[in-house]
Write a structure and sequence with these properties.
The chain has about 475 residues and is an all-alpha fold. It has a single domain, classed as Orthogonal Bundle (Hydantoin permease), CATH 1.10.4160. The chain is built from 17 helices and two strands. A hairpin with a 3-residue loop joins β1 and β2. α3 packs antiparallel against α11 and α9 packs parallel to α12. The termini are far apart. It comes from Cutaneotrichosporon cavernicola.
Length: about 475
């Protein structure tokens, strides 16, 4: 039994026998495997269908988990501990449902490679082109942000041993080299190292802030209190920016289409998703609550500096492998999307031909160079990433999945369960629109205020971006 193209057959997919699936669609003990996205997969080219369910789970985690997890204490400080935890759980629940719909859609429509393919089926060519641009811009912006994150770590461990522009260039070179690995199956080992690295780094930070006398940003002398707020009183823009941070922390959803497309058995996708979201949410909650409890309003920026100069170097040093794997994966994703679009339907997509390699290296190089230029040259790049996350990240994590459920179940019997599903899908679409519009407004206000106060940063700056403690 292979993929099921009829949406009504999706309910029966999970009960199918794995052996039948493996032989017909994946096994290929007899020769050529034909995939509805990549075409014929042979021993003469890359195997794009090689990721197991555990590898899938760790790739999902790596698209979401980075040093952004350390923004959770700041979110709790803005919203208050209780609203912050409740908002995080709510965002986790909605995005987990969105992620689940990705898997159901893939089983119903195996020819889907990315979110643009979904929009083509639902909204036609216009939706396809808009979402193609949105997907590419989003991941290139994230790639630029990852390059800056790696430069921050290199600055921290070297005590600003070189110009920041040099470290960003080093990050870009690393990104291009590792992102050129052609399959997610081969990248998954980097993701394992990366997730472990980030978790160890933030756990070391958590222990450090728990045993220290006071966080680095607290007053150096006299009594001090962490000033923990159970309920915050933020302005609208501050609150929506904090919620946008939570959304961005779960904004790996658009990448899940590409990841499930390279699974050996996409029916195991839900197992991978549950593993990913459970671990991610537990880490976010644990780090956010514990670090905020010990540091309160005195969380350093960046947060890895909260435990002092020495521990900042230790934590950033431990995090470097994780940051390397992040910049590799988030550069690989837009490059692969462009590459598949160019060569889809051609034998070059799964061969080792000159056309294949020239196109692939060209796509990786183009995405890397664009990400590097905007990360180094845009004076308000941090604000730009927030804006892209609010506008495009939300757009690809909420609204499409509501429309996908409605499309998949458009011919179902009108039962109470169906009406509840319609109500929930409509809620996700409306909530996504609200978060997108309000988050975009908040990001624009933040950019305006930040530029008025600090004037942005110089292009290709040498200034230390790791903070001081």
């Amino acid at each position: 039994m292979g993929y099921h193209k009829n949406e009504k057959d999706v309910r029966d997919v999970d009960s199918a026998e794995d052996n039948d699936y493996d032989v017909e669609v994946l096994g290929s003990k007899r020769g050529v495997v034909t995939d509805e996205v990549f075409g014929a997969i042979t021993d003469n080219g890359p195997n794009y269908r090689s990721v197991g369910w555990l590898g899938t789970a760790v790739l999902m985690m790596k698209t979401q988990m980075g040093l952004g997890v350390l923004s959770m204490p700041a979110v709790f400080d803005t919203l208050g501990m209780i609203p912050g935890v409740l908002c995080l759980i709510a965002i986790a629940a909605i995005t987990t449902w969105s992620d689940y719909i990705v898997g159901r859609w893939k089983l119903a429509h195996p020819d889907t490679y990315d979110i643009a393919d979904v929009m083509m089926r639902i909204f036609g060519r216009f939706g396809y082109e808009v979402m193609n641009v949105a997907y590419t811009l989003f991941w290139i912006a994230v790639s630029g942000s990852a390059m800056l994150g790696l430069s921050t770590a290199l600055n921290a461990v070297s005590s600003h041993g070189a110009c920041t522009a040099v470290f960003v260039a080093v990050a870009a070179i690393i990104a291009m080299g590792l992102a050129s690995i052609r399959t997610l199956g081969r990248i998954s080992w980097l993701a394992w190292i990366g997730v472990t690295s980030i978790v160890v780094s933030i756990l070391v930070l958590t222990v450090s802030v728990g045993v220290q006398d006071r966080p680095s940003a607290a007053p150096k002398e006299g009594l001090w209190e962490p000033e923990i707020k159970l309920f915050g009183n933020p302005s609208f823009t501050s609150a929506i920016s904090a919620i946008g941070t939570l959304v961005f922390s779960y904004a790996g959803t658009p990448a899940f289409f590409s990841i499930v497309s390279e699974m050996r058995d996409p029916r195991h996708y839900t197992r991978s998703l549950v593993t990913c979201q459970t671990i991610i949410t537990c880490v976010y909650l644990a780090i956010g609550i514990v670090v905020y409890y010990f540091c309160g309003a005195f969380v350093a920026s960046p947060a890895l500096g909260s435990a002092g100069t020495l521990m900042k170097k230790v934590c950033y040093g431990l995090a470097i492998p994780g940051l390397v794997s992040t910049v590799c994966l988030v550069t690989h994703l837009p490059a692969k999307q462009i590459f598949v679009r160019i060569l889809r339907g051609s034998d070059h997509l799964t061969s080792n031909s000159i056309v294949h390699w020239a196109t692939w290296i060209g796509c990786v190089a183009a995405c890397t160079i664009i990400a590097y230029i905007i990360a180094s040259a845009v004076p308000v790049f941090g604000g730009l990433v927030s804006l892209v996350g609010a506008l495009l990240g939300t757009l690809m994590c909420f609204q499409p999945m509501g429309f996908m459920w409605l499309y998949l179940h458009r011919e179902d019997e009108r039962t109470t369960k169906w009406y509840l599903g319609v109500a929930w899908s409509t809620f996700v679409i409306v909530a996504g629109m609200f978060l997108m519009v309000s988050g975009t407004y908040g990001s624009i206000v933040d950019i305006k205020d930040s530029y008025a106060k600090y004037g942005g940063t110089a292009a290709w700056t040498c200034a230390d971006n790791s903070g001081s403690v």
